[in-house]
């Protein structure tokens, strides 16, 4: 596995070693000992989640607060998404900044997202299957969200707003100024 640090503390891009031959391919999508050796981090994943969405679906930006905050290792099994995170860690110099990366079944990249980030993704292919490991259980009362198109965040979602499909809940999330006051 190749590990690439980003300019955000502990936000890491992981690219697995893929073995291809005439039969197809094989790779280890996660191995705890290798991840710890390469990153110096040791999350204890307790829950796996998977979703499937169609072109233009935007899910996010979501996060959990307090003791139920989650670190995540995210990847795409089928299709392609624009994966976006926003740093909500007030003590970091990257607080309020966003990071995006294209994750796909083709590039097989994964993004490790530490606790303290809002996370969302937009489906760029006809269909995408999104998979992620979490180091804490989902807890409805700790769930929060952040408006995806807040001008203060300046996120380029790469699609026209008319092409986006959002849940009613995601359409009505608070802006960054409101969230800052709650952190």
Automatic annotation (TrEMBL):
Pathway: Carbohydrate biosynthesis; dTDP-L-rhamnose biosynthesis
Transmembrane is among the record's keywords: no
EC code: 5.1.3.13
Gene Ontology annotations of biological process type: dTDP-rhamnose biosynthetic process; polysaccharide biosynthetic process
Active site: 62, 132
InterPro entries reported in the protein's UniProt record: RmlC-like, RmlC-like_jellyroll, RmlC_Cupin_sf
Signal peptide region: none
The UniProt record lists the keyword Isomerase: yes
Enzyme superclass (EC): isomerase
Keyword line: Isomerase
Cellular component GO terms, alphabetical: cytosol
Enzymatic reactions: dTDP-4-dehydro-6-deoxy-alpha-D-glucose = dTDP-4-dehydro-beta-L-rhamnose
UniProt GO molecular function: dTDP-4-dehydrorhamnose 3,5-epimerase activity
UniProt-annotated site: Participates in a stacking interaction with the thymidine ring of dTDP-4-oxo-6-deoxyglucose, residues: 138
Coiled coil: none
Function: Catalyzes the epimerization of the C3' and C5'positions of dTDP-6-deoxy-D-xylo-4-hexulose, forming dTDP-6-deoxy-L-lyxo-4-hexulose.
Family, as annotated: Belongs to the dTDP-4-dehydrorhamnose 3,5-epimerase family.
PANTHER family: DTDP-6-DEOXY-D-GLUCOSE-3,5 EPIMERASE, THYMIDINE DIPHOSPHO-4-KETO-RHAMNOSE 3,5-EPIMERASE
Subunit structure: Homodimer.
Identification of the protein by name: dTDP-4-dehydrorhamnose 3,5-epimerase
Organism: Dokdonia pacifica
Source taxonomy: Bacteria, Pseudomonadati, Bacteroidota, Flavobacteriia, Flavobacteriales
């Amino acid at each position: 596995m190749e590990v690439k640090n980003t300019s955000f503390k502990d936000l890491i891009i992981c690219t697995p070693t893929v073995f291809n031959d005439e039969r197809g391919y094989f790779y280890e999508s996660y191995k705890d000992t290798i991840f710890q050796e390469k990153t110096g981090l040791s999350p204890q994943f307790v829950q796996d989640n998977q979703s499937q969405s169609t072109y233009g679906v935007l899910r996010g930006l979501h996060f959990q607060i307090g003791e139920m905050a989650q670190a995540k290792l995210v990847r795409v099994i089928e299709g392609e998404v624009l994966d976006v995170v926003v740093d909500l860690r007030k003590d970091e110099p990257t607080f309020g900044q966003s990071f995006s990366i294209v994750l796909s079944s083709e590039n097989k990249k994964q993004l490790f997202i530490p606790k303290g980030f809002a996370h969302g993704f937009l489906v760029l292919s006809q269909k995408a299957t999104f998979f992620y490991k979490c180091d804490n259980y989902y807890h409805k009362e700790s769930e929060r969200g952040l408006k995806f198109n807040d001008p203060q965040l300046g996120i380029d979602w790469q699609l026209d707003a008319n092409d986006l499909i959002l849940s009613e809940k995601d359409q009505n999330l608070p802006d960054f100024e409101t969230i800052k006051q709650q952190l």
